Protein: Cobalt-factor II C(20)-methyltransferase
Organism: Vagococcus carniphilus
Amino acid sequence: MAKFYGIGTGPGDSELLTVKGKKTLEMIDCLYTPEPKKKGKSLALSIVSPYLPETLEIKQRHFPMVNDLSEKENAWNDIANEILEEVKAGKNVGFITLGDPMVYSTYSYLLERLSDHIETETIPGISSFCSMSNALQIPLVMDEETYSVVPATASENVINTALETFSTVIIMKVSIELPKIKKLLEEKGLLASSVLISNASMEDEKIIMGLEDLDETERISYFSTIIVYKTRKI
Amino acid sequence: MAKFYGIGTGPGDSELLTVKGKKTLEMIDCLYTPEPKKKGKSLALSIVSPYLPETLEIKQRHFPMVNDLSEKENAWNDIANEILEEVKAGKNVGFITLGDPMVYSTYSYLLERLSDHIETETIPGISSFCSMSNALQIPLVMDEETYSVVPATASENVINTALETFSTVIIMKVSIELPKIKKLLEEKGLLASSVLISNASMEDEKIIMGLEDLDETERISYFSTIIVYKTRKI
């Protein structure tokens, strides 16, 4: 029976796709992918491009990144309806999403519109912070340790609780929130224990070990994450 | 130059290995793997077995699971020395570890004994809880949400803070700690929001949605994880 497949592409390096993700891309009839903000190829599409059969039909669709919820919902509804029709017509349809589909992905909004109506399957991917800690070769957690993942847009209260309670704290989507995050890390004396990584596993990956000298007004990549290693030497 | 490669196998399904992990297994000269506790094949080895060249030399080594730190350290030293000699002699050596190498893996102890002496590379893997949320198709985090990962052996205080502060809480290595965890979830009224998964992505995977009726004295698999979804209907 035809199905809808959500596929996590991993963080950037094409080889960090799973074997299952690769096999799925080779068998589907049609692939949906988020349209890039600027002209050019979508990042998710670049990652999987080595595995796509030449004949695969690719449909880029625009997901508005705006504050207006109804504008976003309209787009999700339209794209979900389009996918629904294709799967009902017997096509196996894929959708690619950066990192892991269950971690901060717009894919969730498509899935909740589809899963009651057609068969769906979701294939995990490597999260950017996971790839980062492997590239650094500094363990996220050992033995009795704990870690937490917070978006930089979370409240100061939540970020402070995370920094106080957990061995390792991952702060995602840093971007324009860098001044706030730098202030919170400074207050806790954690700047020297923090690593900033932009564009993890990509060709233009950038790693800053220790954030004491980082200019917080610097414009950093949209794909920037901080790992705070409270219990390691970095 | 010869290298030491740590490879995350993912949670259990062979197809959840990364393409990079697969390619590395195909090119190394020798593979080290933890010896199973009982006789039979190691789980990590079963996961990667579809990709291993017939001629690949496989060395199972015993990692003692005991409280005596010096016994464990002796074993890590011996295995690290053996690997060191092989890499120095020009062999590319691999080591496989369940899930992701940077998340609760004994691999960390080998790596810290090797990384100053030889070239090392670590290849990420899908963590069991990540595979679980994808199998359930229930997002771990959306938008401003947060999640945390704690071992069931952590203090009640840490687990309670996690349950109070984060949208989603992943409790790993539940096993014999089930009575304690069930009590903490009950106190917070979170039993109905919790999912227990044993042997994620394996053939004998077992999923219990909502833990109100779970007998906490039941013997559960060593590979059991609870996801507490505070903000989702499960």
In short: The CA atoms of residues 79 and 167 of chain B lie 41 Å apart. The first strand of chain B starts at residue 4 and ends at 8. Residues 4-123 of chain B form a domain with the Cobalt-precorrin-4 Transmethylase; domain 1 fold (CATH 3.40.1010.10). Chain B has a mean pLDDT of 94.
